[in-house]
Design brief:
heterodimer, A: alpha+beta, Immunoglobulin-like, four-stranded antiparallel beta sheet, 4 helices, 15 strands, globular, B: 411 residues, alpha+beta, nine-stranded mixed beta sheet
């Protein structure tokens, strides 16, 4: 390997490492039918175009619930989540844990049926040099026995808010927010892309592994596939805001 | 398969299928012999009120089995604990971890020798919308080499308290008692009123390290030994002195409330919590606050004729300060009108309420003024001269009756 290619490789590794370190991510993978504590790992606050680092003061977290987008690793169609998990929905599986480590005030998000679909924290200030953990409980769903899904990748939309603005246009700016959300047409994604906001198209991922010992794949499935469930644009639009606080 | 075995299997399956942590208060993780690790109690629910919203948990008491514990083999026969674990007792193995996510005050329960036997926490509230975690450290005991025990099931008595009123100690909807059903006064009273949890204590499983401490050849797969708090243990240790439990409030004595002032913020703050007073006086963790030299008194648990005073935290955008609400009505209305306020403790203090502005005999008038600024702040005062001075600075006088009194302090 030439020195040049070695340097390039080093830069690539450094960039990848930085990226993995900086995103807001889910701490642990889950196993089907197991209820466990988990947490969001907050890697950094916001950075202004001038390079100033701003601490995070609020966070909004949305699990996919209303008409989520579904895709598979092999491109095979999946009509609904009913065919993948017995619960048929991710709504109601997450439960916020009361914790004052980062945010002094917390709120929950629920769907029309009262199922918890996310949560938010406000009145916080996460030091820019300190990592943050926001705990939650997750009851991993059970895979449908006939499904070929070996893993369910749950994409979680997250807004890490550093400065409050007046409305969406003023709030979605560099230095004011990081948006770890799918790039699927929500006003947040559109505005975030235009403003070059960190995180557009990079939502956090909660991986749920099938317990293949207790719930083996059908013999026709081979090694199995990944099914990805992503919050729809409508879901993000409706549920990402923190009522009365942001945007 | 015998009927007994089938029943046991069905119970096991039911337990596995039940949503873990969805309702019961339980222990988060299993332990391994000889390993000291952090763990937590998982609070799954508040106190269920028929036809109404559940009440928040405002205090918790936790008792590990140490006083004449009931130790049994799977067939129900009694076992001596010193034949199972090297330590011979569970006393001294648990330690509370300070965490203010739910409760602001914490205390360790100790036996006569100073060994920890449990812990308690209060002055806080777990919103029913959220799951709660109360962390503790546990030093898992070592199994005696000759015992056939492969697991030790430690039953932990837990009281999740939703009302600190003396009459509510074992009332349904006011407390959940995750305790053994073995004749304690808490179990007896709780069963009478259908309190949730009687007979369902939390379980901390200690696993034998079979790699380093294998079972003897005659032990087969090994057995579970269960250690449960005795009725005497529960009666002696479940109460929280001065806070909750049978007889806990009999010795309630008023404490001093200390007032502080932050000149940069032009904010006032009052507290009776020793931990907060220590931090405010020290100034290294919470900076910028000075004592004003003004104090008055309050009960910290219900006394005859008192009402609860709640404490709300007002978020930074609205004040970054605290509000103390009088009685259930003002507390509830404050929360409804200001959903962003954080209810830190629904029963932070116990004070007397004025009747049309008149305080009961032998109590002290407490006045309140409001800064009337965007960074909302309230000051609680005992003399009218200071109140008049504050009013001359633009603060708004609040209260009932001709003297504008908000509450009345014990002498």
């Amino acid at each position: 390997m030439s020195i040049g290619s070695m340097l390039a490789a080093c830069v690539a590794v450094a960039l990848c490492a930085h990226g993995a370190f900086a995103h807001t991510t889910v701490r642990s993978q889950a196993t089907e039918s197991v209820t466990e504590d988990n947490a969001l790992k907050i890697g950094h606050g916001c950075t202004t175009p001038e390079g100033a680092r701003i601490p995070m003061i609020a966070q909004s977290v949305v699990f996919p619930s209303a008409a989520p987008e579904l895709s598979t690793s092999d491109g095979s169609p999946v009509a609904s989540l009913d065919a993948v998990i017995e619960q048929g929905t991710v709504a109601g599986l997450v439960r916020a844990i009361q914790d004052k480590g980062v945010f002094r005030a917390q709120q929950v998000k629920r769907d029309a049926l009262g199922n918890m679909t996310g949560f938010s924290g406000t009145s916080g200030s996460l030091d820019v040099d300190v990592l943050g953990r926001v705990p939650f409980q997750f009851a991993a769903p059970k895979f449908v026995a006939t499904s070929c899904a070996r893993r369910l990748l749950v994409k979680v939309a997250i807004a890490d808010v550093c400065l409050l603005g007046a409305g969406l246009a003023d709030s979605v700016k560099q230095g004011k927010v990081n948006l770890w959300i799918p790039d699927n047409g929500s006003p947040f994604a559109v505005a975030g892309k235009a403003q070059n906001i960190d995180g557009i198209g990079a939502p956090a991922t909660l991986t749920i592994n099938r317990n293949v010992a207790a719930n083996p794949l059908p013999s026709s499935c081979g090694a199995g596939i990944d099914v990805t469930v992503t919050p729809s644009a409508a879901d993000v639009t409706v549920n990402l805001p923190i009522p009365g606080v942001w945007p | 398969m015998s009927h007994a075995v089938r029943l046991a299997c069905l119970l096991l399956i039911a337990a596995v299928l039940a949503p873990p942590g969805a309702a019961f208060t339980s222990v988060r993780s299993q332990a391994v012999e000889g390993v000291t690790s952090d763990n937590a109690l998982r609070i799954g629910e508040g106190c269920a009120v028929p036809g109404g919203a559940p009440l928040p948990v405002v205090a918790q008491s936790v008792v590990f089995p140490t006083v004449a514990p009931i130790v049994t083999a799977p067939n129900g026969s009694a076992v001596a604990l010193d034949t199972v674990i090297v330590q011979g007792s569970l006393a001294g193995l648990v330690r509370a971890i300070e965490d203010t996510s739910i409760f602001m005050s914490h205390e360790q329960k100790s036996d006569a020798l100073g060994n920890s036997v449990g812990f308690a926490a209060y002055d806080g509230a777990l919103s029913p919308d959220f799951a709660g975690r109360v962390p503790f450290q546990f030093a898992a005991p070592m199994f005696v080499a000759t015992t056939c025990a492969s697991r030790l099931l430690v039953k932990v008595a837990v009281a999740d308290v939703c009302s600190r009123e003396a009459d509510d100690t074992a009332s349904t909807g006011k407390v959940n008692l995750w305790i053994p059903d073995n004749g304690s006064q808490y179990a007896a009273a709780g069963k009478d009123t259908s309190v949730e949890g009687i007979g369902s204590p939390a379980t901390l499983i200690v696993n034998r390290d079979l790699a380093t401490n294998p079972l003897g050849p005659g032990c087969g797969a090994g057995i579970d030994v269960t250690v449960t708090p005795s009725a005497a243990d529960v009666d002696a240790n479940l109460g929280i002195r001065g806070v909750w439990g049978f007889g806990a409030t009999a010795a309630s004595q008023p404490v001093q409330i200390v007032e502080y002032y932050n000149a940069v913020l032009d904010h006032y703050f009052i507290t009776w919590l020793p931990d907060e007073i220590g931090k405010l006086d020290d100034g290294s963790v919470i900076r910028g606050w000075q004592r004003t030299g003004r104090e008055f008194r309050t009960y910290t648990s219900a006394a005859a004729g008192t009402s609860s005073v709640c404490r709300y935290y007002i978020p930074p955008g609205l004040g970054d300060s605290h509000f103390f609400g009088r009685g259930t009505v003002e507390c509830t209305q404050t929360g409804q009108k200001n959903p962003s306020f954080v209810l830190e403790d629904p029963q932070f203090m116990q004070m007397f309420l004025p009747a049309q502005g008149a305080c009961p005999a032998n109590t002290q008038q407490i006045f309140r003024v409001f800064s009337n600024r965007a960074d909302a702040n309230h000051r609680y005062i005992t003399d009218k001269t200071t109140r008049a001075q504050m009013a001359s600075r633009g603060w708004v006088v609040e209260g009932d009756g001709p003297d504008a009194v908000v509450m009345c302090a014990p002498p």
